[in-house]
């Protein structure tokens, strides 16, 4: 029989604890920059991808559109992004402002420092291995949690010709 409570020491707990230690390190620094949870990643996304839709960002970060919308509203109010109407009434495009680029530069500096702390004592090879393993972990979990493709409908049966009926005549 397996030990009860073993999940306290398994891989998911190691990731969970590392994530929370990272969050505890970054949140006060994020607040000093006037940024809230989730906002820095949107600034970084826009810097890399340029003008984007809320839906594109939600798909990339694997969250719902409403969560992105709430974060963008706060970023827009702070003058870090600007939104414009997209090709239809329901779509908005988002882009960084000059102030947003400045906030992202400050955030990138915080992340550089955090990475130095997080990876202290790891060789360049170990850092590369860790990055590759985390990418594979993400891919495995994303694949496993992706909705299954809908099954193709069964082809409709072809009506039988009158001569196909062994009793004779049409069906």
Descriptive notes:
Keywords: DNA-binding, Transcription, Transcription regulation. InterPro entries: HTH_MarR-typ, WH-like_DNA-bd_sf, WH_DNA-bd_sf. It is a single chain. The chain is mostly helical and 171 residues long. Helices cover 57% and strands 7% of the residues. The protein is built from six helices and three strands; from the N terminus they run H-H-E-H-H-E-E-H-H. The protein has helices at residues 11-32, 39-49, 54-61, 65-77, 98-118, 124-145; strands spanning 52-53, 81-85, 92-96. A three-stranded antiparallel β-sheet has the order 1-3-2. The longest helix has 22 residues, at 11-32. The radius of gyration is 25 Å and the shape is flat. The relative contact order is 0.09. The model is unreliable at 161-171 (pLDDT under 50).
Total helices: the number is: 6
Shape: flat
Largest sheet: 3 strands, antiparallel
Spans of at least 5 consecutive residues whose pLDDT stays below 50 are: 161-171
How much of the sequence is in beta strands? Answer: 5-15%
**Strands of the largest sheet, in order across it?**
1-3-2
Helix percentage range: 55-70%
Order of helices and strands: HHEHHEEHH
Mean pLDDT level: 88
Total strands: the figure is 3
**Class based on secondary structure composition and strand pairing:** mainly alpha
Distance between the termini: 62 Å
Rg, Å, rounded: 25 Å
Summarize the structure.
With 171 residues, this protein is mainly alpha-helical. Helices cover 57% and strands 7% of the residues.
Jot down its keywords.
mainly alpha, transcription, WH_DNA-bd_sf, HTH_MarR-typ, 6 helices, three-stranded antiparallel beta sheet, disordered C terminus
